[in-house]
Amino acid sequence: GNRDCVISAAADAGRELRNLFLNDLTGRKKEMTPDFETYLKLNEEEMIGALQEMLRVNTEAAPAVRTKDGQLYPYGAGNQECLEKALELGRKLGFVTRNVDNYGGHIDWTGTGNGTEPPKIMAVLGHLDVVPAGDGWDFDPYGAEGKDGYIYGRGTTDDKGPVISCLYAMKALKDAMPEAYFEILHFPYEDDGVDF
Hints:
Blueprint lengths: L1 H24 L10 H7 L1 H12 L9 E2 L5 E2 L2 H17 L3 E4 L5 E5 L12 E6 L17 E3 L2 E3 L7 H17 L5 E6 L9
């Protein structure tokens, strides 16, 4: 089911990020094979729960909202809520987070470097908005219900599921490779020309 796809996607993302770090970015080979599948299986329920929490937030396009204290939520309350949940999850997993004026966010890990050169940078881009759910759903598009190994909800595959998969892959790499530097950028709304 797609629960397994989320776990598999995170493992694939972790391996790909590891390979980029070990080969392309540092120019050195290193004997290290973090066991992503084991890590992700140990954290499967947490990861699935995090995905379900994100899926339950309606992040369809919405007008900008200004709060009573004057803050602007440029993509509406739902997208703001989802961005804040993503950043909170990043903090919970041990990353440094930054909200960029509610237009997007960063979840970073600054590693130690290899002792002779500074940490290298890898970035993963993702968005948290969804297109309108429309009609014809057998499940609530914002219910994040599980059945027969699948999670049903708007954004499961585009792009909340991949964002959560990459975040947990980064966590596995952070634990296994403290010298690396990772950055995940969340764009609450992909269709607007936000410049970071």
